[in-house]
Design goal:
The protein is α/β, with parallel strands linked by helices. The protein folds into three domains: 3-95, Udp-n-acetylmuramoylalanyl-d-glutamate--2,6- Diaminopimelate Ligase, Chain: A, domain 1 (3-Layer(aba) Sandwich); 99-325, Mur-like, catalytic domain (UDP-N-acetylmuramoyl-L-alanine:D-glutamate ligase, 3-Layer(aba) Sandwich), CATH 3.40.1190.10; 334-489, Alpha-Beta Complex (Protein-Tyrosine Phosphatase, Chain A). It contains 15 helices and 24 strands. The strands form four sheets. The chain has an eleven-stranded mixed sheet with strand order 9-8-7-10-6-11-12-13-14-15-16, with helices on both faces. A six-stranded mixed sheet has the order 17-18-22-19-20-21, sandwiched between helices. A five-stranded mixed sheet has the order 1-5-4-3-2. Helix 3 runs parallel beside helix 5, helix 4 crosses helix 9 and helix 4 (114-127) packs across helix 10 (317-325). The longest helix has 14 residues, at 114-127. The radius of gyration is 25 Å and the shape is globular. The relative contact order is 0.08.
Amino acid sequence: MKLGNLLEDIRYEVKKGSIDTEITTLVYDSRKVEEGSVFVCISGSVRDAHDFIPEVIAKGAKAVIVEKEVEVPEDVTVIQTKDNRYTLACMSAAYFGHPARKLKTIGITGTKGKTTTTYMIKSILERSGIKTGLIGTIEILIGEKQIPAKNTTPESYELQSYFKEMVDAGLEAVVMEVSSQGLMLHRVSGFTFDYGVFTNLEPDHIGENEHKDFEDYMHCKSLLFQQCKVGILNADSEHLEGILKGHTCKVETFGFSENANLRAEDMKLIHKPGYIGVQYHIGGDMDFDVDINVPGRFSVYNSLTAVAICRHFGVKEEVIKEALSHVSVKGRIEIVPISPRFTLMIDYAHNAMALESLLTTLKEYEPKRLVCLFGCGGNRAKSRRFEMGEVSSKLADLTIVTSDNPRFEEPMDIIADILVGVKRGDGSFVTIPDRKEAIEYAIKNAQDGDVIILAGKGHEDYQEIAGVKHHMDERELIADILKKHPEYTR
């Protein structure tokens, strides 16, 4: 293909050579360059990709896309643009034949709820016969194919590659998580979403290598609504106006607000033996009752979001209701049904904000005891350990402090830091470093009416120790414990 065909949506300057140059592959990773490649220089926080130009030319690259002046041999084409991340996104879309135009694309942004909502939407659409792909924090799903995720939102080249694979597999729609980093770094540029969704906004991802402040974080989230046809947003968010600043899309809303297009009414918390969930009525643009097997007010928001999307696909009410009653997301308030006496759950909450939200939600169900088992990752800020320990001790009746991913730290050093925070609260606590032993302790000592939460690992199926990832899935640990001790379930 000719280089010019990949540059059709980009402003650029030909510094040398010609856009009629024939190229074989589009590459931004210097290790993947081959004879005839065009190499896009993407500069990161550690290395400047322009430094690799001599290496990629030696490998046979026929063109380079740059942001600054460079010296190259006579037979190499040089194209200069102002933002190579945006350029890569547009070139990738063209390289794969603009696959997003052949799919109904749904992008979900927000601090919390993205993962659960994507699975809810996929579940409903699939039940109604609409083949739907998924791209998110946990995995990429293309038909029966499952690919572990590296980032919440993949780099633009990989994203367009997944879109192309979805089109080739006969999929009709894709629902994906869109992170603030993904928007800021143009990972989702090069196409227009059919639907953009905003869940909520809280201070997060603010720091030296992410967003400089909350305003920057909110601005990046808002970019989705300058890149979608229909925006579906949480009417109850205090940041709604900020998210809509500069929007170019048609706007619809959901929430508990009377002004929302899709409203939640008459919410009831449901707690039965071994089960907790929520019921409510949908009013406004639709009119029916919903029963969800995931607890809490935030589950109402997540499900409302899914309904707001799926109504645009003409999905019938009974299909929506059936799908929501059976929704399950690995590691996101995932109930593991082992006994009618108590409720056991797995969740990914791995910072104080997420843990506080989770435990506060579960306390609303007035369990006999709320038991929280968690650890903290090694080689991370100690403040997170103090904060999570304090949150658990103040909200849970019993905290079981154990190990998470110690990485290159000693597990007991991490636990000691957690206990600093735990001792600031009034809850009881025990320390059991081995995670499997800690889980067995929680199950063995469960009392009738308890809600037990295993926090921090969620969907992860490994434990990282001294740079090595060892297989460890909490579901398998639970199954193994019960195989040896079936009496625990009685």
